[in-house]
Amino acid sequence: MSRKISLSCIAAAVVAIAAPSLRAQSNNSSLTPDWCRQLPRPQYKQLERVPSADPWFEVYRVAPGVFAIYEPHQFEEVISFLILGEKRAALFDSGLGIGDIKRVVASLTSLPIVVLNSHTHNDHVGDNWEFSEIYGMDTGFTRANAMGSSADAQAELTPISICGRLPAGFDAKSYSTRPFHVNRWLHDGDTLDLGGRVLQVISTPGHTPDAICLLDRKNGLLFTGDTFYAGPIWLYRPETDLDAYVHSVERIAAMAPQLRLLLPSHNVPVDDPSQLPKLLAAIKKVRAGRVHPISVREGKVHYRVDGFVFLMTAPK
Ligand SMILES: [Zn+2]
Prior knowledge:
alpha/beta; globular
């Protein structure tokens, strides 16, 4: 689950039905949610867009053999990644399960697919059920989420969460996160050889107990999941562990000199590795009590520091 960043760029917007919502800030004078009117994010102009087999998604080639599969019509703006090797491909997250990501993946590669998840919040595992090969972190949190649920999925569909139209034939009433079967349990340091490309699992608990980053060392790529992305980083859920988060950011910040590109799971699919040491400094300032909280909603606060925003529970 994730984030919104405020951008001043107002571009052509797709009209959405809207009603006040607890999930996103709205401009009540308009029928289009603010977040939606601010799309497309300017960073996308620099990216190479490729055709998408399902109009719910936009697809971008963000590195050789790496596609970002972006869902701009829902406020999470979640991004899944298809990472190609010579013998098989990894799908790092399967999105909200509103569009058909399997169709998109099949149009991009005929390689066998292994699904891994950055973590098992509903917006990252929505289409897991469509795939037969799924690797999951060996945690109780993962096991619980693999059983599926409907509450978190239903909460994604408030009118103000949608930008444009839901796909034709999509049944909002029955929308839920469907159960999926994990074939192999993963641990920190495990590797996945795709043929000509090796991905290493970096356990980065904090946002959730099962959060991971994926490291493609040879190509200097780090897929950061929800541990880092542009926009308010959500660190308020009951499963969030702030001390673990700081430790995880320390770990990936130490990798920054060896990295060429970060690939985050929300909002914008590429970022600069130099962000990681800055992120570490920022979250340490928050934890040291050096940043004033700004109340946002429902007992939550923003900590804004050095260009980063953390959405956390209000201090007591
Ligand atoms: Zn999440």
